[in-house]
Amino acid sequence: MTLVGWLQISLLFLAVLLVIKPLGLYMARVFSGERASLSPVLGRVERDLYRVSGISPEKEQSWLGYTLAMLTFSLGGFLALYAMLRLQAYLPLNPHGFPGLPSDLAFNTAVSFVTNTNWQNYGGETTMSHFSQMAGLTVQNFLSAATGMALAIAVTRALARSKVATLGNFWVDMTRATLYVLLPLAIVVALAFVAMGLPQTLDGSVTATTLEGANQVISLGPVASQEAIKQLGTNGGGFFNVNAAHPFENPTAWSNYLNIFAMLSISASLVYTFGQMVGNRRQGWALLAAMAFLLISGVAVTYWAEAQGNTILTAIGVDPSLGNMEGKEVRFGQAMTALYAAVTTGLSDGGVNGMHGSFTGLGGLVPMFLIQLGEVLPGGVGSGLYGMLVFAILSVFVAGLMVGRTPEFLGKKIEGREMKFAMLAVLILPLVILGFTSVSAMLPFAAASVGTAGPHGLSEILYAYSSAAGNNGSAFGSLSGNTPWYNTTLGIAMLLGRFAYVVPVMAIAGSLAAKVKSPASAGTFPTDGPLFVGLLIGIILILGGLQFLPALVLGPIVEHFAMLAGQTF
What we know:
By secondary structure, the chain is mostly helical. The chain is globular. The longest helix has 31 residues, at 130-160. Helices cover 64% and strands 2% of the residues. It has helices at 3-31, 39-53, 63-86, 103-114, 124-127, 130-160, 170-195, 223-232, 253-277, 281-308, 311-315, 333-346, 361-372, 383-403, 416-442, 444-447, 455-469, 484-513, 530-545, 549-564, and strands at residues 205-209, 215-219, 408-409, 412-413. It is a multi-pass membrane protein. Its main location: membrane. Keywords: Cell membrane, Ion transport, Membrane, Potassium, Potassium transport, Transmembrane, Transmembrane helix, Transport. This is Potassium-transporting ATPase potassium-binding subunit.
């Protein structure tokens, strides 16, 4: 580790910190229906969209109505994208003449982008037409992110209001998230990416002459626009197969910086929006403090592990002073690769600028563990916030048991109904991840897709299902996932990780919205101070992490100690 590396990391987090309050306040005004800075430009467009679609913005929905609207919208998006991918050969803007996707790959991809996972069992530049990339994948990058934001705002209203039966209108919240937040920011970031050298063209390819005098055909396309919403919406799906390690998708250190900044900006700012809308900004900062502590800890451990190098490579003559550079781009180095890896997995982004499977055992453990914590650091756009609120509810319940008082969070009593739904949500991830991992490790045809023997092979499977159920989308890379088994089971894991999780969360929101919001008293456990932050971190680590410890011991932890001993498998 170097001082320069830590300075790069610190400046990035400082830049994010500077935008949290202004962007958070702006989003609070947008979702509260107040006049925002872009209202004079976009207000008429918003009203016209409601008029054309027959939506009454004043009509609010119950938690069940809100959830059903979200599920219906997601189902429609899945069917449209699935049909587009299957019929790709007959659609326009297909300069390479790519055929339609097989049914299992089309299912996996459609589910992946609708759930904001963006797991990719295909090479983008060798599989997808420009039409599929733009009208299919990029559109879902906007809509799946807007859906997550809408759900987070609905849960926020449940805690802000008192004794009501409604949580807002899904169609309005989703429209505002897209129109006022994602679209304007994506335009700005896309133009910045173009200035940094990312292609933005409808040409299919360009031919270059190499230093050896040979001709090389290099794929092109509308990369900058997809890259912008990929990061702002914490989607992660790359235009190219190697994602943000590709020089056309992430050419310089500055574009790498903007990638990470864009990932964090909306997700972190939404936590401030939460504090503003519930009338307790300190509560928003408390949640952000817990997120930041765990995320920065993950960055530090990953950076340290990769800077130490690999004793096995050192034994064959590789200079240990460079650390572990396997699977990393020289233009980014260890510090920015470690930062990218921790941020993309602390969020539910899944974009990568290095090969996670080439990290050391401990370095690869951290990204996997951050996903398994529930994608709440600060998590995906919207989904991270409502995931963190589930942990907050669990934390105040534990605090109430310790002091013998009825647990409350922001004036709402937490009772048996909320706890049952919270535990149901928390148990979804381990059930899906460990269940599918154990079955895949035992089935010969599933195990045949593993690229590496021993504990690293188990890590490949465990990481894949963690990434799918956590709606992350990154991978250890050497797992050959484009098979009927993995396309189907990973798709199911994505569906359960998104929708089986959010339905009980919305049920909690409906229950809390109907309760009277009581003012704080002398006996109220404060949830906006250091004591609560520490308790919240502990609950996240215990409930979100320890349930995966036995599997992690058999995979990356064994690999770490074997590397220290100079052993290979």
